[in-house]
Amino acid sequence: MLRTLLVDDEPLALTILSDYVGKVPFLQLVGATTSPIAALQRVQAGEVDVVLLDIQMPELTGIQFLKIVGNRCRIILTTAYSEYALDGYEHDVVDYLLKPISFERFYRAVQKLLPSPGAVSAPEPRQPTDAATAVADTATSDFIFVKTEYRLQRVDLADVLYAEGLKDYVSLYTGQPANPTRLLTLQTMKHLEEKLPVSRFVRVHKSYIVALNRIESIERNRIYIGKAVIPIGDTYRDEFFRRVEG
């Protein structure tokens, strides 16, 4: 169990996150506080494994909190302001959640705390429980933010055609299939896959993720989206055809 502390100056946010933590079997809620100073004392005393941390708070900001605690615990940032994301990633946060936070997005973030798939008795990252699936179908955000060289770029999920992995970079193709727009992002395929809702996207190859509703046709081991021909890898074949054939 990962000892989890919630820090936010909004009581309603603490109530929502407390409920979310209670639904995840490998998290143990050890406290919820509006005081970052009190939270800092608990972290320094070694009582906490994970902190879900707001950024805009009186007494001490989330970024200042990060600088003080260092690597004493793992941090997931929760905020209504996307402009702080780069600061957060510079301090190696686990994830950056933009309010309002759905359970599906929260669930994917805390899955990153696990050392490896199956290392803790918990649902598989890409196969959530029935309850989580229901939330994913109804509460998934319509957009994500991806890190580019100079900024965080909003990407509407409805515009995404497919993603192509390039080592530590990912090319996102969006827009019209006949003339797609390419966006180069500074992240790995694994990180992108964790951000995308499982109900709408599927990994089909070690180097490709596709939007299910943008697939135009499938021929043997190839997927066609506009002019793009995307291979289906052996490792992903059974799961992909299970998804498309129902």
User: Could you give the count of β-strands?
Assistant: 15
Main β-sheet, spatial strand arrangement: 2-1-3-4-5
| Radius of gyration of CA atoms, rounded to a whole number | 19 Å
Q: Which fold name is given in CATH as the topology of the largest domain? A: Rossmann fold
CATH architectural label of the largest domain: 3-Layer(aba) Sandwich
Question: So what's the oligomer here?
Answer: single chain
**Assigned CATH superfamily of the largest domain:** Response regulator
Q: In percent, how helical is the residue content?
A: 25-40%
Shape annotation: elongated
Number of domains: 2
Order of helices and strands: EHEHEHEHEHHEEEEEHEEEEEH
Strand content: 25-35%
What's the helix count? 8
Contiguous uncertain segments of 5+ residues: 117-140
Structural class: alpha/beta
Mean pLDDT: 83
CATH class of the largest domain: Alpha Beta
Distance between the termini: 35 Å
Largest pleated sheet = 5 strands, parallel
